[in-house]
């Protein structure tokens, strides 16, 4: 009888300790990632447009409504790209692509996988193209995400993350629409997250 009571007491202490540790993390998480941007470069114009792939910095802020449901805002600084037509450089542009995602975090021992879906807004700026050629400065599109947080220490996580973001812009020449250029990048990132 005493052994049973001791076992129950020990189980209660361990479970309450785990619950307190989970609560102590707090609802906020901030991650910093190094991300490789790989553009799909799907162009419906006759120009054969492409932009370069590149590595970019990324910061996100996540708020957990409970242990499974969270919202994540992904931010970076304006990124400069070279725009090419038929392989030849014709100009440059910058894009700023903040993205807001709703996430579901799965319960798993030892690591925390998640999936997300949301909306991307991209603002094109510093557009430097040949005379008469222009692009729409704003893009709205869906974004999809899968990732995992791996605990390293108290409140500190190693993060792996993959996103597909749908970014497009209409291309015009002399005021006439030539077609739509879809960047639609895949972003593969690795970084660290801090839960508080």
TrEMBL record:
Keywords: Signal
The protein's name in its UniProt record: OmpW family protein
Subcellular location: Cell outer membrane
Pfam families recorded: OmpW (PF03922)
Family matches, as InterPro entries: OMP/PagP_B-barrel, OMPW
Organism superkingdom: Bacteria
Cellular component GO terms held in the UniProt record: cell outer membrane
Annotated transmembrane regions: none
UniProt-listed GO biological process terms: transmembrane transport
Keyword Signal: yes
Endpoints of the signal sequence: 1-21
């Amino acid at each position: 009888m005493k052994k049973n009571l001791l076992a129950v007491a020990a189980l209660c202490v361990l479970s309450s300790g785990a619950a307190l540790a989970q609560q102590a993390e707090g609802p906020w998480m901030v991650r910093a990632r190094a991300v490789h941007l790989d553009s799909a470069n799907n162009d419906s114009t006759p120009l054969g447009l492409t932009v370069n792939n590149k590595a970019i910095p990324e910061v996100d802020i996540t708020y957990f409504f409970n242990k499974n449901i969270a919202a994540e805002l992904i931010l970076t600084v304006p990124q400069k790209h070279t725009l090419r037509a038929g392989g030849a450089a014709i100009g440059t542009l910058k894009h700023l692509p903040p993205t807001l995602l709703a996430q579901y975090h799965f319960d798993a021992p030892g690591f925390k996988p998640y999936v997300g879906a949301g909306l991307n807004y991209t603002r094109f700026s510093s557009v430097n193209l040949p005379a008469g050629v222009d692009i729409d400065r704003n893009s709205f599109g869906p974004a999809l995400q899968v990732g995992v947080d791996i605990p390293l220490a108290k409140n500190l996580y190693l993060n792996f993350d993959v996103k597909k973001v749908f970014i497009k812009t209409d291309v015009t020449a002399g005021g006439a629409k030539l077609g739509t250029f879809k960047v639609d990048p895949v972003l593969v990132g690795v970084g660290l997250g801090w839960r508080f």
